[in-house]
Each structure stands twice: as C-alpha cells, then as structure tokens.
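README: folding subset

This subset contains proteins for which both the sequence and a predicted structure token string are available. Records are stored as plain text. Below is the entry for Transcriptional regulator (131 residues), shown exactly as it appears on disk.
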Amino acid sequence: MFKKRIRQLRKEFKLTQQELADKIGVNRATIAGYETKGMEPGYDTLSELARIFNVSTDYLLGLTDQRQNPNDKIKSAISDDPELLEFWNELSQREDLQLLFKQTRDLPKEAIQDVINIIRRIERDAHKRHN
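--- output ---
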C-alpha cells in the first residue's frame, strides 16, 4: 500500500522522483524503490513524507483511508479561535480532561448544567481560600 500511496501523492503534488528525493534528502533511486520495489522508509523519513504531503503516517502505510489525523482536522477547523485552539491543545495532552469529557458526553443537558454548576462552586470556593 505504501508504494501506491507515495506514488499517488507525489503525482498529486506534481513532483518528480528527483524533486521528492531532494526534499527528504535521499537519492532518486530510493524514491523509485519506494514506488516500485516495495521498500519502506525509516521512521524519520516516513514522518517527513507525511509532513510534506500533509497526511498521517497511518495513511501512508495504508492503515487508514483518512488522509489527515482527526486531531489535525479539528485543529484546522478551530484555528481561527485562539481560546478554543488552546483548549483543544490542552485537552489533547491531559488525560484528566479527556476522562471528564468522556464521562459527561452522554449526559443529558440538565446533568451537564449540574456538572458546570458544581465546577463553578469549586472555583468560587478555591478563589475564596486564596483571597
């Protein structure tokens, strides 16, 4: 699958084998090997190819048909809202926030409002303690 995808993407981007080779710092024969002999790149080269073509490494390897990582699609969709983008970045890194989201996502609106009210009370109490 990799050889098919790398060739397809190179052509979509209108790159010759030599141009792609120059971009990733290998010789043209290496690109030809990827496309015809089923050779696969090392991790660093695979990551660089994914970056150049703006696809996930999983897509290049044929593990998914989604070109972009779903997180990248979300980031792109919210990129014009700095506060929301900052929240998304934090959510992506913190397991505790992910758990909170997972625990509340199926709750009805009223229950979510209860959770929000509890969080606000905790914030007020913490603010009082620190002042």
